[in-house]
Specification:
The chain has 163 residues and is an all-alpha fold. It contains 3 helices and no strands.
Length: 163
């Protein structure tokens, strides 16, 4: 009869091995919550600017179309370009964090499977999947960093263009 838990490991150690990916899943959940909120705000900002751009563009043929309207139209166009790039960064962060969650779930499954199947050593694949999950978290953080920087640049441009 095969033994369920190796003699060198206590039940507590097995539980700890299974908990580590769960902690990372929780952490990614919090990161996803924050970045999804940013995503909603950026998309909403794009919609508002598009609506403003449409209204100003309709006036373009009128005699009332002013120099200020033209400046605002150019400003909106530049902001929209930057917001599309910002949206791409947020999307990449979301995809990175979501991939990390999937990899941490897979890590837990492989770890659990490793205790029940004695014929195959799954320690290296388990560690590899966990590390790739951590790299996906890092990628998400990097995307979030650049998204935050892009957001600041957009605000800075908007303030400067109205001076």
């Amino acid at each position: 009869m095969t033994q369920m838990i190796p003699e060198s490991m206590s039940v507590t150690q097995v539980i700890q091995l299974l908990i580590a990916p769960a902690v990372m899943i929780n952490a990614c959940g919090l990161l996803l919550l924050g970045i999804n909120n940013k995503y909603s705000m950026v998309v909403n900002r794009v919609r508002i600017l598009n609506e403003e751009k449409r209204k100003i563009s309709l006036k373009a043929g009128d005699k009332n179309f002013s120099y200020e309207d033209n400046i605002r139209l150019e400003s909106i166009s530049k902001q929209l370009q930057s917001l599309v790039q910002r949206t791409r960064l947020v999307r990449n962060a979301v995809l990175s964090y979501t991939s990390a969650v999937a990899l941490f779930v897979l890590t837990s499954i492989i770890t659990g499977f490793d205790f029940f199947v004695d014929t195959v050593d799954l320690k290296i694949p388990t560690i590899a999947v966990f590390i790739v999950g951590m790299l996906m978290v890092l990628a998400g953080i990097i995307y979030a960093f650049f998204e935050t920087k892009r957001g600041y640049d957009i605000i800075k441009y908007e303030v400067i263009s109205h001076e």
